Structures
1.
Amino acid sequence: MNATELAPIVYTAWGNTLNTTSWSTGAAVDWYVPGTYLNKTVVDDIFHWGADYDVSPPVFATYPANHSTLLNQTGIYGREALYLLGKGSTDEYALCSIQAFLTPFCFTSYTVSSDNASLRSNCSGPKTEDPHDMRYINSLINATSGNDTISHDWPYLLTSWSDSLSLNEGLYGSVSNNAQILTQLILQDAALSPNMPSMAEGIAVMAGSALLMASEASPLVQFWNYTTRTLSPGQYQYFNATLETQMYASGGNGETGTHAFFIVLVTVFVVNIICLVYFVRGDGLVTDFTETLNLFSLSINSPASDFMAGSCATGPSSKHFGPEWVIKASGEHVYLISKEDLDPETESGTPGSIDRSMLSRLKGMIGR
């Protein structure tokens, strides 16, 4: 909307001289009587106000400056919405309304996992056969919804909410960070952008936490079935809910995209069976000479090698890593020897061949 289109609901455009900076206290708006200022605007049919609807439109104290917002402070108890007027860097203004009402066609799901948590509102129109459908309409088929459940207390709660976020600083010509963020989301065309939220969506996100806090300790039904206005202490109420727990599970969870995990599960299971059969049919455990403790015991109990001469003081160099080393056994004594040190006249077959049954008995000896 431009300034001309907003003029019917902007007080300073009427030519009057009240001090608009005191509107936030309510002292300067005593003249405002709902139903007496039904000025026609180009957005009457969008917000359902004006003479055709017998609903007074909001009246703003002044035009907001660039990148600032302000709220309407007019109206006594009973108004159904709070209105926010913002201006970006262009000559166009954005007007949003914030309402709160109850709907029986939604249910809430709260999901907790090891890495995150999410709270989601699931809403649908007709009744479904979903066993997880915990909508209130299933408990009370004649539950009211829509305009009949609009909260008249919500605008006054939002007044404190907006003051805490400095969304009314446009009344004093100031610019707050939150207002600047919202005005950057003003749509330039009459279509929602697929890449960024609109100003209305930004306000909804900001006000969402206030709506959750307002629902705390509220009744879980649409009626007040107590004789007193307040309950101290409170009373428990029952409501429909389901609780599902899922422990750690390997493989697919029923969804089509997860069925491929069964291939991995079957493969791992088969490999485990093969390993089990191998160990059961084997001759016992074999000493792992690559373990640090076993390798140290093997090296200090092995004879000196001429090929490693000169490496005691400075450590082995590149030439010492060339030869191959084999494990030999003499009785119950096991030692390490280089192929270059083997006597070809006395050694035959594969150097270092050791009976598996003897290796299975060497664990304790090498540890000593």
2.
Amino acid sequence: MKRNHEVDSESQKVNQFPLKVKLNLEPKVQKPDAEQSPECSEVASNNRSGSNNLVVNNPYSSELEENVGGFYNARRGFNIKGYIGKKPIGRGTQSLVWLVKKDEDYGAIKFSKSTTFLIKVALDEVQILKKLNAKSKNGHPNIVKLLEHGFLSADNALYCFMILELLGPFLFFALHHSQTEMHMENKKKICRQVLSALSYVHRNSVIHCDVKPENIMLVISKEDARCQANNEKIDTATFQIDLTDPFFDVQVKLGDFGSARSRENDRYFKELQTCLYRAPETFLTTKIDTPVDIWSFGRMAYQLVFKHRLFSCNMDNNEHNLKHLNMMSSVLGPIPLAPFRENLRPEYVNFFDDSGNFIDLGCVPARQNFLEMAAMHKLNVADALELDDFLRSLLKYEPSHRSTAEQALSHAFLKTNNVRASQIKPNTQRATSQ
């Protein structure tokens, strides 16, 4: 039986939005969790098992509980499909995410912003996740699981919601907002798992269109989930994840399919992909396919290894697209017209010279190539050479010449180095609570 604030997405079409339902927004008084134990307290957070726990700082925490127009005004203690709202854990331009608990299980509820377009986007994401999750009993081990979905109405607005499995911090936060220095073996494991997810996505005729560290999440233990639910702080979180240990069983999942497209139905559209990870054909043409995800993954892999973005992107500059393309040329060589001629956007027609290469606008300083970056970061020779070949196989201008996800999985760079404990230098920089 449905509660008075729930509407199943299958039975409610987007054009039937004038929907009047009551939603109980009064927070319920929650009894302390019976399993709560002292190790979840702020004081003891660094004393939990594991000497190199991952401590992640959220630089956007001050914004999470602000009531911003268009977003669902969630309050701690809300009840949706039996899931109790514990605290906000994320917010983007299109959605708000809360940590929720149902009985002894935890999840993350994602509320779409209340506009007709964004509700349609959310419904498209639901359908893609249902398709991907339905292909096997337990879904793919490296793709986020959809648990529930539906609509709710509040404050004269309609919202689409998805309840997803609870995952840990974004890979981006683990890279750039923690003191942990990730071991190369764990970087390789993460690359393998993301490629496995992309291979599965592409086999099922889906293009993710937004592969980036912010959409890759670390899997956490049930204990970590409980501790995060019981910790009211939203600016810092501690997880029993030791990324400094090459033998740690790190697991990640690909999430946020809000920009994803079906290969059969919709490959002609305006620019997609986050600018920092956008493929050349997304800039230059009106048609894309699964190789755009491979390009984005290649740039993410570079960032994972070096903790630097391959190319910057200044959206405030009206000429940022041209500058970005020149950055590609400075590292990867001239961009040829041939792979993009058939579907070239008209605004780029005059930016190729007589020899068929993208014009050098002289706005980009010389940049280090992959081998030079590897030397700066003191990679061993074998890793440096294999990484150079790996990245170049992913970042080819001709989309059909890039490695597929399945092909990339067998690249030599992703093979384990069979490190031994005696070969690993102890990590001298321990994570501390902020």
3.
Amino acid sequence: MKNLTSCDLVCEAYSKGELEAERVTCTKLQDFTLASWPCYRDAIPQFFSRLLLPSLSSFKAKCSMGSIMPNPEDSFRSIRHAINVSQSPLTTLEFENGPIAEEDLLSILRTTPTLEFLKLVDVGPHAITDQTLNELTVRPNKDFITPRLSSLHLISEVEFTSRKFVAMVESRQNGLLGVDHLKSVIIGWVTDEDDLNENEASNVDILSALDTYRSEGLEFILMTEKRTAQDSEDETED
């Protein structure tokens, strides 16, 4: 384990069983990929509570839909704990198909100034909030987070204020305080209906103001998606 540099882990469907309590340190592990089918109770939290990953630079996770965990947010929370405790020099973070609480994502962003690429897909409406956007916004004489962030991809339900998102992106394109410019911003606005309601349409229209930065080299993609029937069923079950 000490010489392991990359790991592709697959959690099998409904696997269970107690893990060893001893902590495992993977001193050279840089790339970690997790694919998870519905796991029994706290299998993923148990696993990550025992890991130290002091060299981790890339973490990618794709969870299954329909987790049987009583608290599905615990999957990402345990990953956040491992990254924070390890003080991992993370540059890439991708997470799909699992709810993320605002405080868990903020905890990683606040303690990982090396982060360059952030991709979140189907993570619920509370992963990125107005508070998150406030802390990502670059202002003179005020603390901000993730100075190296160059790519932000979010495909999920959102509840943040569109104007705050636009202001955050604009603040990072101004070259203030040595912060890297955003090179890629992808927003997939997930909605319940085939057509956007009036409020959603207004928010999408506000976000489209970022089109102007394409001439300066920003890859900006704004799309809308209807939430699948399976997503709705999962929420009802929760």
4.
Amino acid sequence: MNKISARMHSIFLRIFGRSGKTYKALRSILNLEKGKVLDLGGGEGRIAEFFAKNGYKTVILDPSKEMLDLVRDKRIVKKLGKADKIPYGNNTFDLVYCVASFHHFSEGSEKNKINLYEKISKEMIRVVKKNRKIIIIDLNPNKWFLGRMAELFERKKGCIFFPPEEIKKLFRKYNVNVYEHGSGYAVIIIK
């Protein structure tokens, strides 16, 4: 992502994003003690900021240097990298989450995209601690006008939108507990 795209994305999120509400929703799902959290594809850190401000050790892993350059909160560790090769050891994080980024992990990939997502799923499970959670919140391409429109636009960039049922299938094969929460766009995985 170039600097202009990153800045436009940032402006769009500031106008239409609901980072505070998303953070509160995550907190209500979690009942998480203070610990270490990983925001996969967290970009400029809009949700990570809320975790950092509330005492969590917060890391953003994102493949875009331009997006990471937009992170303002100095408490957040910024790490350049991709979700299929998370540069942390096993059982490092109390929470791994991605909000509106799961569909972007295939962007620009020429590989078999389903195999890529299987590798990403394994990586997420590998770095989260036992009895801790992975939360994926993304637009559901089978619901809502916004989800369908986003899928049409983003598909041109190589993105894949998974309905919650497909995300659950991806993770269930790794012997973890998987369930949906709320309105059908949050999938929670417990290692």
